[in-house]
Design a protein that fits this description.
Elements: H1 2-23, E1 28-30, H2 34-38, E2 51-53, E3 64-70, E4 73-85, E5 92-104, E6 109-112, E7 124-129, E8 135-141, E9 150-158, E10 163-170, E11 193-198
Parallel strand pairs: 1-2, 2-5
Antiparallel strand pairs: 3-4, 3-11, 4-5, 5-6, 5-7, 7-8, 8-9, 9-10, 10-11
Length: 199
């Protein structure tokens, strides 16, 4: 009898948990609230099953091809939206991703990521809108990420959304010169700040 009651209690508890989790299925949270949730004291943050969605179409002005020239190098960004499904927990997030190409003045391609899959580490992957929704924050990892080619990218629309200002902040905290050529960090592919124009 005790075993039967114990089994019933376990089944009831699992049933309640399943109902709680399923109640969050389809819960849409505007993507612009992501930053506030991350920086709040909300105990559980974003509930399982939620969808951080671009319900107000904030991504639309960022989408497309952006080009510019910096230090005699042509830079091209292709910014596109990805519906990201977390592999860690039941959570869906709209994100901006960037594929890019950098070409020297002589035509030599420094790097091109246009043919890479979204999962590739060289794709610049979005995180969230900043605290006032005026810029978007992304993670960058270059070919030599352990030697200093990694950091955070901030993208801000300017000039009536016809241009973007890109600010790159390298993360030197993860630099391990022991794994680098000649024991030194490699040069950055991206400069600290540049402007691209929508094509």
């Amino acid at each position: 009898m005790k075993n039967t009651i114990f089994i019933l209690i376990i089944l009831l508890a699992l049933s309640c948990k399943a109902q709680i989790n399923s109640s969050n299925q389809g819960l849409e949270i505007p993507i612009e609230q992501h930053f506030n949730i991350l920086n709040s004291n909300i105990e559980n943050g974003i509930p399982d099953g939620a969808y951080l969605k671009d319900v107000n179409n904030l991504f639309n002005d960022y989408l497309g091809v952006w080009q510019g020239t910096v230090n005699n190098e042509a830079i091209e960004f292709l910014i596109y939206k990805v519906v990201y499904n977390s592999s860690i927990r039941p959570l869906t997030i709209d994100k901006l991703y960037i594929k890019y190409k950098i070409t020297e003045a002589n035509g030599n391609v420094v790097i091109e990521t246009s043919s890479l899959q979204n999962e590739d580490g060289l794709i610049i992957k979005g995180n969230y809108f900043g605290h006032d929704d005026s810029y978007y924050v992304l993670d960058y990892s270059g070919e030599h990420y352990s030697c200093g080619q990694m950091g955070t990218i901030f993208v801000k629309l300017i000039n009536n959304n016809t241009q973007i200002r890109v600010h790159y902040n390298p993360n030197t905290d993860s630099l391990d010169v022991n794994n680098c050529p000649n024991g030194e960090s490699v040069s950055q592919v991206l400069v600290p700040e540049f402007i691209l124009t929508k094509q």
